Amino acid sequence: MTKFVFVYHAPQTPAEATPPTAEEGQAVMEKWMAWAGEVGDRMVDFGTPLAGGVRVTPGGTSECDRQVPGYSIIEAADMDAALTLAGNHPHLDMPGGCEIEVHEAQPVPGM
Question: What residue ranges do the domains of the chain occupy?
Fold first, then answer.
């Protein structure tokens, strides 16, 4: 099995937006947990929420221009299988134009 990194992108929630209710938050988590249940033991790392990305370059630092609210690492037989799992992800149902990047993890030579 090959590892794939799912990088989630979503617009940042504006400060003036109404925060979700406890019930709305619970409903979202139930969808995520149902998806994780479908993935089963192929889930290597469920991931964690991310915030405040900073780009580091030889010229210095700058704020990231794409919001990355989280990631997951899963195992799949190939890219097609990983894309099938991504296509069923509840992140795609979130408002605001959310998307998922799927990257195949490559082995590091000599490790």
Answer: 1-13+33-50+64-111
Cα 41 to Cα 22: distance, rounded to the nearest angstrom: 29
Q: Alpha carbon of 33 to those of 17, 39, 59, 96, 99: distances in Å?
A: 25, 10, 41, 21, 18
Can you give the pTM of this predicted structure? 0.84
Quick check: 31 and 99 in contact, CB under 8 A? Answer: no
Distance separating alpha carbons of residues 68 and 39, to the nearest angstrom: 21
The topology (CATH level 3) of 1-13+33-50+64-111 is: Alpha-Beta Plaits (3.30.70)
In contact, 90 and 35? CB cutoff 8 Å: yes
From first to last of the 111 residues of the chain, give the pLDDT tens digit: 999 999 998 876 655 567 778 888 888 889 989 999 999 999 999 998 888 889 999 999 998 888 888 999 999 999 999 999 999 999 888 877 789 999 999 988 998
